[in-house]
Amino acid sequence: MTDRTAKWVWGIGMWILALAFLAPFAWMLSTALKPDVDAYKVPMQWIPDPFQWENFRSVLTGATSVLPAFGRSVFVAALRVAGELVTATMAGYAFARMSFKWRDKIFLMYLATAIIPVQLLLVPRFIYFQRLGLYDTLWALILPGMFTVLGTFMMRQFFAAQPAEFAEAARMDGASEWRVFTRIYLPLAKPVLSALGILAFVWSWNDYETPLVLISDPERYTLPLSLSNFVNEQGQIAPGLTMAASVISIVPVLIVFILLQRRFIAAMTHTGIK
Amino acid sequence: MRRKGFSRREALAVLGAAAGTAVLPGCSTDQGSRSAALQVWGGVPPESGPAAVVEAFQRKFPQHKVTYTRYVNDDRGNLKLDTALQGGVDIDVYFTYGLGPLALRAGSGLAADLTDQVRRAPELRPFLDTEQPRAYFDNGRVKGLATASVPSFVMFNEKLRRQAGVELPHEWTIEEYRATAKRLTTADTVGAYRVPDVARIALGPDYWYDGDRSNFGDPHFEQEFRIGQEMIAEGSAFRWTEVLSRHLDVYQQNAFLGEEFHLWPTWPFNLRYLRDAKMYPHDFKVSFAPLPTVDGRDWNSGECGNFLMVNPKSPKQEVAWEFIKFYLTEGSGPMLSAGQLPSLSNLSEDQVISGMLGEEPERYFDVESFRRVVLDPKLKLATGTRLTAFPEIRLAEKQQRDLCWLGEKAPGPAIRDVRRVADAAIARNDRRP
Amino acid sequence: MGTATVAETSAAAKPTAARTKKRTKKAPPGIRPKGWVGLLFILPNLLGVIAFTLIPLVSVVVLAFTDWNLVSGLGGIRFTGTDNFVAIAQDPAFWKAVGLTLVYAGVSVPLTVILGLALGIALNRPLPGRAALRAIFFLPYIVNIVAVGMTWLMLMNPNSGLVNQVLGGLGLEPGWFASSNWALPALIVMAVWGGVGYASLIYMSALQDAPRQLYEAADIDGAGAWTKFRVITWPSVLPSTIFLVVTLIIGVSQGFGLIALITAGGPGDSTTTLSYYMYQTGFQFYRFGYASAIGLVTFAGVLVLTLLTWRAQRGRALHD
What we know:
The structure holds 3 protein chains of 3 kinds.
Chain A lengths: L2 H30 L3 H4 L14 H7 L6 H31 L5 H13 L2 H15 L6 H8 L2 H12 L4 H8 L4 H12 L1 H17 L2 H6 L8 H4 L12 H22 L14
Helix pairs in contact in A: 1-14, 3-14, 4-7, 4-8, 4-11, 8-11, 9-10, 11-14
Chain B lengths: L7 H16 L14 E5 L7 H11 L5 E5 L4 H12 L6 E4 L2 H9 L7 H6 L14 E4 L2 E10 L2 E5 H7 L9 H11 L5 E3 L5 H6 L5 E2 L2 E2 L4 H16 L5 H6 L2 H10 L3 E6 L19 E4 L13 E8 L6 H15 L9 E2 L6 H9 L3 H4 L2 H7 L16 H16 L5 H21 L2
Parallel strand pairs in B: 1-2, 1-3, 7-10
Antiparallel strand pairs in B: 3-12, 4-5, 5-12, 5-13, 6-10, 6-11, 8-9
Chain C lengths: L4 H8 L2 H10 L12 H27 L2 E2 L10 E2 L3 H7 L2 H32 L6 H13 L2 H11 L6 H7 L14 H24 L5 H10 L3 H30 L2 H6 L11 H11 L3 H32 L1
Antiparallel strand pairs in C: 1-2
Helix pairs in contact in C: 1-11, 1-14, 5-9, 5-11, 6-9, 9-11, 11-14, 13-14
Main location (chain C): membrane
Keywords (chain C): Cell membrane, Membrane, Transmembrane, Transmembrane helix, Transport
InterPro entries (chain C): ABC_transporter_permease, MetI-like, MetI-like_sf
């Protein structure tokens, strides 16, 4: 098989698999475009009849518009991602490639904090954040998101996989630790930084529980909270509006993803599985 | 229990110290900033009524401003409200929907004692009734006032009823209900959504409790599970696999609007789907029948609900009471469109009909039977007052009902498992000081 | 615990260079034996973690030894010593939940990792429309779970859903969410569907590390595809695999959102996993002390699993 045909055989296979993955999204889009009663019609109705563009209009405009919340979510996510990339990369690097007192103990504590179920933290966090004066401010969402354990863990695992000899050589040449980090290891980390950037964005974007408990003013709602506009007091969800808002909320994440995924370079065709 | 010589006092001292130093420094009640407006938290989206109530209140009392904040009435939404109330967030008046949170909030100092205010207002006298209570009493004190009366009734799809030649019952027994459902069952439609709440109709309020134990030994519980299972098996009630996989416990209206079944035991809040044929297209009228009786007993399995409560920490007690009184007496009109029947019947029947059934009531509803059944002043509403281990029992009953009606478990063993869990939960809760 | 061994693992990625060194050296190469500089590197993150996560977390530990219903406020906290833990040991619902969680994690985590690795490798190859393909497989991870739940309920409807229409051709008709035998498998399918995009993203970035010269050298040696995968690719993605396994286990042990939305733990208690049971006792039954105790026990269990994962990695590294 030539490389060219191999590429197409693989490509076709992957696209068939991708279609299976896309089916649920086709359904979401179709539900976003139809009247609510048809959403639950049995058997499933894939093509909306009639097309109800109204759902998108009411999600984007008027009293239940998600756009202000959308903006706040972007703001929160941007700061969280920036903070997380900086602090997690430095900490992850140090945990993997440097030696200092209590290193392993601190790292074990890190892992432990990640394991404690988040839902149990909600109430203590509420009490504590209220005393810090952060309750009902966007900082209550941003600050904890800038210093994460999972990001640090991810970066640590990446740097641990990098050859140590680079650093040894540089140190012998008298390079400072900061220089070793920024000039030698950081450039290697571009792909994994992209991955962490994407993930941190998603974690921030879809966070529901933290803002639920820490934000009360609807003027400060983030996107996931604003979706509760489409749930009535009986717990009945308006499917058309919810799906329309969900489809809209995918867009920025996809943009971030498509921009950053280019860092995963194509060069390797030899990874072992053919 | 403390075999290893771990004394309770030691544990308490150590942990108390840890808590005190590390996490919860100073339990001072930080009131935070209080706004000038009365802060009201409720579960109904503002545009479905509350905004109009607030507007009317501000028109009548221009000196008072009200801000309505909506919380989602689910587990996590209630957690949000509870933490906020507990943390001294600026909330003056709030709604409580579920019976579990109701007892907890009233019993834990999150609800102000409204007894004296109610006594002083003659128009609110019905709230002092303890026979069929419309208020929540905590040790004899009024802590919450129900804003809505939520009777249940059976709705008929008129088109299908006429086709089948079935008469609209003015009163019927549970056996007749089942027989009717069977007659209405056709090749492509199911007779009834489900069997009504048999045990509750027979036993009335607090039907889960018998002294300091649960009451699931009463045969009516097993009867309900059995009839339900048999009706599903004979095709006269909705298949439970469909109910679970389409979440029909919450979305029954979709199947009813789609004319998948004929008989619907339901509540007023679902009327909103039937009066708006533009949003919820359908071309049939509905008529109303009372719940069937069980062994001659006729408790209505609906209840009084949507309780208004006042935060005792609120510095605006008087305005809060003014708002509550307004809401209960003259303010509840806008809530009709959300399917909320006011707990005080001080609106005329015609007002209720036009508010609840929309602009063309005759087109979608048999108004005569609506008046007779839903607005019946003699309805015996079974509102519970005992709420021990309420959420635990509700869950156990739901779990076993699902298994039974899926056909995975026989009614007898299923009810015995509910009883076992309920007894244990009640015992555990009563042990609490 | 052997955190230092991760460095050894990476050394294994360079078989020829590292193997000789490893036998002679205790400390992995490139790690400065002493110093405070490293502490400065972690300081920004460490302070943030302490301030915003660790401090509130201590109170969870404290709450586990109390009986508290939240609405009674801080004054209503009643210390009960080890009562909660004694009760947990005797709570059949808890042990049932442990079993379900082990099945849930035991099936969904390995599946997600294996499929994610295969997908990550495939998506790093030149493919027509690769950027789009990568995005499509990642989509499930980013959609909000309310939409995901609503969609899968429809797709997995036993009588009319797309899934059973396809399976019907094979003579299979599982009851999915309307059957206490099939509800957990349905959740596993959803977890894998939602997780492979995440796993492949991690792998896509990790696969950049395997030095190309090694593959070229292996080609010259005439090594087969499997050998290249085992000797070069796998060691280079092993640290990321550890990260994935640990985070996926944490995800299973904490995730209750989809369960709350789709099955609410049912039918019966067939999908009441540990995290959902904790959610029930805390947020529905208002037993926050007991819920915290369950959380603490879960924590201990996951910690043990994490350490085991770590040891497996060390064993693996030494084995090579």
